[in-house]
Design goal:
280 residues, alpha+beta, Jelly Rolls, Arc Repressor Mutant, subunit A, 2 domains, seven-stranded antiparallel sheet, four-stranded antiparallel sheet, 11 strands, elongated
């Protein structure tokens, strides 16, 4: 039948941003019908076999590697369509769960595809072991695990069979690597788009969709961070040379960008960190 357990949820645990309510692994799922839903959030991960799931009026067939996200109070029912439908499950709650789910785009109950099913399964097994260990700080450890699990859902799941966020973002890896290697040189939007053989327009779309910024905003932020590193690690380097090493065309432009983002000049930034500026 598999293993399952429920941690002790004290009033202090309920004050945490996230807390674990229950966890089960290798569960041979029986038929469930909940007209009034379940009192907490649930993630049911299909490990083996298939099941039929109805959420509200919508019915779905769930296969291995897919998961079911259920919000509290949402009418649902499910049953096996194979001889054995094996699932892992996690129930959780917390004062910040709804806000986090909304912020990462998981706003409603439904069926989700996963591009890293093994990772999600291992996290649920870890939750089971944390509760079974019965340590004094288990509530805090489980709270951290639930938060990490929600971020994993954000990275590795999607409502359709399309690319998950993780797979989409991996498409930008060659572009980000190019920026890291060539940030000291002039970079054009055509250079960046050529890294992954797409149009500049589509590259801008990917940056907006995945990183919520524009390509050259990212380049400027990367160069700015490099400038900050040099300011702190090489106190003998003059500001004009820092600007050049960070990829800026002039000291004045570097100073302007620095003040815009940091609210102070490069020299003041050094002094703020206890470093005496080099004249000239």
């Amino acid at each position: 039948m598999g293993a399952y357990t429920y941690p002790i949820v004290t009033e202090n645990v309920k004050k945490l941003p996230f807390y674990l309510v229950g966890v089960g692994c290798d569960w041979e799922q029986e038929e469930i019908d909940r007209p009034l839903g379940y009192p907490t959030h649930q993630w049911i991960h299909c490990v083996k076999g298939t099941g039929s799931v109805t959420i509200g009026e919508d019915s779905h067939i769930v296969e291995a590697g897919q998961g079911i996200l259920l919000f509290p109070g949402v009418r649902h029912r499910y049953h096996a369509t194979d001889d054995r439908w094996i699932v892992h499950w996690l129930t959780f709650d917390g004062v910040h769960v709804d806000n986090v789910l909304k912020s990462i785009g998981l706003e409603e109950s439904g069926i989700y595809w996963s591009s890293n099913s093994d990772l999600l399964e291992s996290k649920i097994r870890l939750a089971l072991s944390l509760v079974e260990a019965n340590r004094s700080f288990a509530g805090i450890d489980c709270s951290a695990l639930v938060y990490g699990f929600l971020l994993d859902l954000y990275k590795y799941t999607h409502r359709t069979a399309d690319e998950t966020l993780h797979l989409k973002q991996s498409r930008l890896d060659p572009v980000l690597a190019y920026i890291a290697e060539h940030y000291r040189e002039p970079i054009s939007i055509e250079d960046l788009a050529a890294c992954i053989d797409i149009t500049p327009q589509y590259l801008c779309q990917l940056f907006r969709e995945l990183l919520h910024t524009r390509p050259f905003e990212y380049v400027n932020q990367f160069r700015l961070n490099k400038g900050k590193e040099i300011l702190l690690t090489s106190p003998e380097t003059r500001i004009s040379e820092v600007a050049r090493l960070a990829g800026y065309s002039s000291e004045s432009y570097f100073g302007s960008i620095f003040r815009k983002h940091e609210g102070l000049s490069p020299s003041r930034f050094r002094k703020l960190h206890g470093i005496k500026d080099t004249p000239g």
